What we know:
By secondary structure, the chain is of the alpha+beta class. The chain folds into two domains: 4-126 and 283-293, Diaminopimelate Epimerase, Chain A, domain 1 (Roll), CATH 3.10.310; 129-278, Roll (Diaminopimelate Epimerase, Chain A, domain 1). The protein has helices at residues 33-43, 76-90, 136-142, 173-178, 183-190, 229-241; strands spanning 4-11, 20-25, 47-51, 61-66, 71-72, 97-102, 105-113, 119-125, 129-133, 157-160, 164-169, 197-201, 211-217, 222-225, 250-256, 264-273, 276-283, 285-293. It has an 18-stranded mixed β-sheet that branches. β15 (250-256) and β16 form a beta hairpin. α2 crosses α6 (229-241).
Amino acid sequence: MKSQRFYLVDVFAEKKYAGNQLAVVAEAEKLSSVQMQRIANEFHFSETTFIISDTMRKGGYDVRIFTPQTELPFAGHPTLGTAFIIRHRISDKKPDRITLNLKVGQIPVSFERDEKENDIIWMHQIPPTFGRTIDSQTMAEALNLRAEDIDERFPTQEVSTGIPFIIVPLKNLDAVKRARTDRAKLLELAQNGSADILVFSRETYKKENNLNVRVFVDLLGIPEDPATGSGNGCLAGYLSHYEYFGNDKINIRVEQGYEIGRPSLLRLKAERRKEKIDVHVGGRATLIATGNLE
């Protein structure tokens, strides 16, 4: 294997050493799937991405995404972080729009400026689909919570925008803090669908944010994820579908990762358009380091 250039990026981070860590490996066309999996396990971040070629195919860049244990068809913060690297380190033109060719399909990513002139990266996720609902007692047992901790005004439901997550509305921040997964119960949940879980509440650490979120993906080898673009895309679709804030249009700030020392900020937009819900997830990215795999 030849020396491979790689980049370390913090995604959904308002400053360095926050958000969700990502390794991006460039010029990976000659790496086998086995080699990619071994490299991802070596970095041991929640995900590592591989840019297969510096040139576009069908209008986009071919990219593969791996956790330490398996390949994924889609994931949120790897999509944003990889597009960030392509724009700033791979492409000569610094385009305002980049498309990634992922296993789930083509995902467009755009670059905008916020009110403070910071770059915000937005990805347009595929429309959400809504799956099974789960009763409060079953879900509470899987999270070591009480059934009364779950806000039953809204369903606990599996939602997917490429990767399915179980969306769990909790009554307050205290319940979010107390959530701890039970692996045996997760394995039971996984028999009928996803066991990746996103819990949320309206109570937040910072008053300028709208929701607090935690994400547990134990069965993928990630006990808790500090910032989850795919899961929050599912949440955005859920909030729109059930009109959580009073109507189907949302434009909110979501905090995640505070409980594990990686404070993150995600921006969610969603709106029903005809028969589908349009979902966008955005945030900032910061380059931390570059290097070579020998």
